[in-house]
Amino acid sequence: MAMQKGDILGHEFMGVVDRVGKSVTKLKPGDRVVTSFQIACGQCSYCKRKLSSFCDRTNDSVLQEKMYGQRDAGFFGYSHFTGGFPGGQAEYVRVPFGEINCLPLPSSVPDEAALYLSDILPTSYHCVVDTGVKEGDTVGIWGLGPIGICTARWCQLKGAKRIIGIDQVPSRLQLARERLGIEVINFSEDKDVVKKLHEMVPEGLDCALDCGTFHEPKSLTHKAQKLMMLETDVPETINECLMTVKKMGRVGIIAAYAGFANGVNVGAIMERGIRVIGNGQAPVHLYWEEILNDYLKTGRFDTSLVVTHRVPLEDFAELYHAFDKRPPGVEKVFVETKFSNPPSAGYPKLSRVAEWPLK
Predict the structure, then answer these.
(1) Which residues contact residue 341 at a Cβ distance below 8 angstroms, ignoring those fewer than 6 apart?
(2) Residue 214 has pLDDT above 80, yes or no
(3) CA–CA distance from 229 to each of 81, 137, 144, 214, 234 (Å)?
(4) What is the reported pLDDT for 213?
(5) Fewer CB in a 10 Å sphere around the end CB: N or C, the chain?
(6) Using an 8 Å Cβ cutoff, are 301 and 157 in contact?
(7) Each residue of 154-164: pLDDT tens digit?
């Protein structure tokens, strides 16, 4: 599960084919492609249904099988918990089962849009589709990072009547209000999110979508339990979702959870008939052609919503240090290599991390 010396991170990448293996016939050098963050074999029962993130054959992690009962697919640059495959934060990447895991791209779709077919666009779309967001729904979204913002946009495109985003980062709350026009709750000000949502939506949410990641505990109880390693995850966001959906409502969990959380309100699930849907790692292959053809080519989905910066590959070490400090206004960073196309119109120009105002 842990990282090892020499591992290469990064599971979201695209580029131009440099070489192909002798069995590859559908791709050739020079083809511009995007790669799914998961590695699918194309032959198992899951892959045949395009459920690529659940491939049975590409992840040999014994630990994941012990923890979860079965294994996900192998993922690029995502530690040895998911197979230990070298990732995409590099100038060259080897892609196993290349014809299965690379999607050829039209020249009309810019890099800054096509790149995100590898992960955040299918992941956010999967959350909305798998949880069953439909026209007229009132939806709460916990977490307004790139996944949460994209999820809010998909909810709009699916006809949701009302969307409420929950976060505490001022720049994210501002983005959600100004670019998407949704309602927001700042949980550093409205500390009782359940009470606030009951005031805003007395009848309850139709859907609650957990789009955070490795949630930091809010309460002293869970801070203590995490410190003592009595739990790997905290249930606070899940419980807020459970307490604010209506009876027979739906809770979708696309957020990253690693293991165990103490104190999940199981009684609310049972007594009020709540449908809790673990969305799982998104099966990119199920959605990427639909998103490309119906939303990116047509301009219905604008990824400039979340792409805030562009830096060169050489800045990666500084970029990691910057993310540790959580500079305001930094969301999705497009990292260019010597093979990248120039910045597209409407997207950020090249900058250097050293130029950013950090806290």
Answers:
(1) 110, 111
(2) no
(3) 19, 38, 27, 14, 11
(4) 76
(5) C
(6) yes
(7) 999 999 999 99
Residue 13 CA to residue 259 CA, distance in Å, equals 27
3-class state of residue 165 by DSSP: strand
Beta bridge partners of 185: 166
Q: How far apart, in whole angstroms, are the C-alpha atoms of residue 229 and residue 261?
A: 11
Which residues contact residue 287 at a Cβ distance below 8 angstroms, ignoring those fewer than 6 apart? 121, 122, 125, 126, 129
Which residues, including other chains, have CB under 8 Å from residue 345's CB and lie 6 or more apart?
none
Per-residue pLDDT tens digits for 91-114: 999 999 999 999 999 999 999 999
Query: 155-161 — which CB contacts under 8 Å span 24+ positions?
Result: 155/128, 156/180, 156/182, 157/295, 157/300, 157/301, 158/128, 158/133, 158/134, 159/134, 159/135, 160/133, 160/134, 160/135, 160/136, 161/135, 161/136, 161/137
Residue 215: pLDDT band with limits 50, 70, 90: confident
Distance between the two ends of the chain, CA-based, in angstroms?
31
